Amino acid sequence: MIQNLRLLNDKYMSCPRILSGHPQNGFPTKAFGNDRSLFFAAKHKHFETSILFVLLFIFSLTSCAPRGERTPLLLISIDGFKPEYLEQHPTPNLHRLMQDGVLAEGMTPVFPSKTFPNHYSLVTGLYTENTGVIANNMYDPKSKEWFSLGNREAVMNANWYGGEPIWVTAEKQGVKAATMFWPGSEAPIKAVYATRWMPYDGNLPYSARVDSVIAWLSVQDTTRPDFLTLYFSGVDDYGHRYGPENKDSMAVAVGLVDSMIGYLLSELERVGWLGNINILVTSDHGMAQLSNERVILLDSIIDMDDVRMVDWNPVAMMYAKEGKLDAVYNALKKSESHYTVYKKEEIPEIYHVKNNDRVPDIMMVADVGYAITTKKMFDERGVGGGTHGYDNRSKEMQALFLAYGPAFKQGERIPTFQNIHVYELMCSLLGLKPAPNDGHPDSLRHVLR
Is 108 annotated as catalytic? Predict the structure, then answer.
């Protein structure tokens, strides 16, 4: 456990920095330490410019009391955070928000319960078949292009993203937005970026992410954002590596992110924003424990030369080679055990995914806790500790929803709801006219004062 803590600290807490924004938006991508004395700007070519920025920033903090009529909204994602973690591990800072805010029993993700589809549905209010973000890995038969999380060109290509995310809705209506890492925010969707946004950097320490949000809120001109996002990935990383049932390892990851929520609250209080900002703490999905005893070896069922794989586990998506569709489907159907196989037209409507051109010929959905792989991949690396993507209605896939701030009731507990309703809630909080979406404006109205 001590070794795990060191690994997390090294990755997420070293060299805290405040980032001013993306160069495309006219903000230099400079950094400086926030140990209140140590500056790292000497690493950069324009040292004098960095010193000037620091001085201006410090000056802004002396007069950053809340102003204006609109209450800012901060949307936080703790990737892979299961609601059960709140009771399984010490989380004093999240419990502080729970005590004075609204906690849902769970939040049902869209299907498949993967990272990109759910982050994007949270901010658009759309099911996956309407966003087109149907998985973390996709193929578009019209453009004949591939999408993956590691493909930077694709991630930054607006053609992959349907609908209108909240930061675009805001900017179009004159409300400034700032996104600290959110799927879709690096692309000019509808030719619009947030006023401030950061290219994803998984190595950026958590404290630097918080510091950046505080800096953005402290801007003393008309570019100060009223909508902001913040993203933490470590709980998901540890969930995949060790599994959600590994109590010691998950306690480290959960404890670290809770400490960063505490740091955020203390910084908001220091600069005068706590009590004057609404905060939504969410996750994109839950996590299920895997086992090397629960494996579906795809190459023992079909000839892999007969298919082109798009995504693998636990929802396998594939195109059958010409003339092979029925043979592949029949073989999978005959061996159907611990998974369910569908031709595209057979995919249940309740998943809200099949009515999109990017959904391929065949989809396999593993039972919760089972992994889809091949003999070679299994021999090389096993199946890992945990994963997600399963039926979005399963308990293991439920996500976190916690609301805190002047707009919300205190000490309120609500039943599980679908994450597509969060977009309408955010538009209401910001006084925005929502874009067309699949949510309902009344679904979360009862959480408001």
Answer: no
